[in-house]
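$ run holo --ligand "zinc ion" --emit tokens
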Amino acid sequence: MLSFNDIIGQDGVKAHLTSALAEKKISHAYIFAGEDGSGKMMLAERFAAALQCDSEGTDPCGACLNCMQSEAHSHPDIIYVTHEKKDITVDDIRLQLVNDIRVLPYSGRYKIYIVDEAEKMNEPAQNALLKTLEEPPEYAVILLLAENTGKFLQTILSRCVILDMRPVERTLIRDYLMAEKQLPDYVANLCASFSCGCIGKARRIAEDEGFIEAKDRVLRLVCDLDRMSQSEISAAIAAIGDKNSAADLSDYFDLLSMWYRDVLVYKSTHNAERVLFSENLHSVAEQAEAKSFPTLNNIFIELDLTKERLKNNVSFPAAMQLLVEAMKAK
Ligand SMILES: [Zn+2]
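-- output --
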């Protein structure tokens, strides 16, 4: 499927691109700016496919040879600029783009270059690209994909149309995860909240069993903490520290933050609809009742401190024990 409509969110960017296609006012250079997983590659590829499509419409038709080649990543006039080193060097840009762009398109109306991680172009590479941007061949379209625009020379920015990716609404991501991944709404909602509006991150979390496991561990600890003996707490902490890589631990702390955010929100509003851990509403409500605002506030401070302590090589059990003390306070 190749339609812009398959892409969740990013209505502003989609509107810009489809109206450019409708009016046949195509710029020579675009920057798609947004974090990993925000959908910028999908948008760039849809745009490239629409530009090459026989239908000349605002969406790729999906049926013509151009569309089939676009979808298979084998279109001779959609060129993916690659790099092997940490930076994108002047040689990468010269060989794959600046020299190549002078050759007429093979079969398409346009010759399109997609540069992923374009923020990694070093200054000589950007200067080489600049010469092309100053006098591009008529058929040239250059799509730069970047985390943000901060690393680009002003002279590059001034010659590009800049398209900023926006966080996608939580409910849209939730509905997408429920439909595409067959997740129950409760889990889909959690994954969507945790993704902070980044569809790729949401998808990754939804497919990651480690995340679901971390969620269950958080729930066991936070729900049962007041009823656990010290030796049970120590065992729970040891189990968490044992199995997790550093990346998983950061998920774990983010989940803890989300839990106490729920408790705080419920304490302030008594609105069950705003609780993300909706399946555990009973425990959320219980803790909202039992814990004071200063205690909850202190838990958030301790969560940040715990991450700091771990960075500063405090042992995991010792750091967690301090956190647990804060979590047990009334
Ligand atoms: Zn087509």
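-- notes --
Residues 53-55, 60-61, 63-64, 66-67 surround zinc ion (CB under 6 Å).
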